[in-house]
Prior knowledge:
Elements: H1 3-19, H2 27-34, H3 38-45, H4 48-72, H5 77-94, H6 96-103, H7 125-130, H8 137-152, H9 159-181, H10 188-201
Helix pairs in contact: 1-2, 1-4, 2-3, 3-4, 4-5, 4-8, 5-6, 5-9, 5-10, 8-9, 9-10
Amino acid sequence: MMPAARESLLDAAYTALARRPWSAVRMVDVAAAAGVSRQTLYNEFGSKDGLARALVRREADGYLAGVDRALAEHSEPRDRLTATAEWTTSAARDNALVRAMLTGCWSERLPSPALSAVPSTSAVPAQRRADGPLPSPGDFVALVRDRAVSVLAGPGTPKSDTAELARSCELAVRLALSCVAAPPGEGGVAGLVRSALHRHAG
């Protein structure tokens, strides 16, 4: 199956989920919305659970791609971390699946895929990957921290500086996550991250 068809099925599933709880989303409706047969949908994802895992995996990948963009957009380390924190809170605000993955709070409305790997018999490589383990909130903190460190620590950065940098990066990510749970007031997430990093770096 073409990746484009897989994407349109995932788009259809995402749209359906925005309108009704996952328990009420029907495979036949997702297939119809994407303009493919129900059999095609089952061939690609194996089951409704397989579709859910693929959807969650795609949203996770989209979030991490946004982290990479935020880190690449600026030259100053503090600006890069602030942009990453702002992206984290906006992605979580706008996308219920990203919010659930980052906080570990899966509402009744959402699919609740097991975070551990499930046995995969899929012939579709992308589905085998989706059937692998999904990141937990702690995994996301580590993934984002490590991405930030690899961008911010130039070649030849001393180990002690890298460890300090990792702590600053982790602090920025954890502050962003706290803003997802309890939205910040004046100054927003950027103000919080800037002042925390200022103190941290001072």
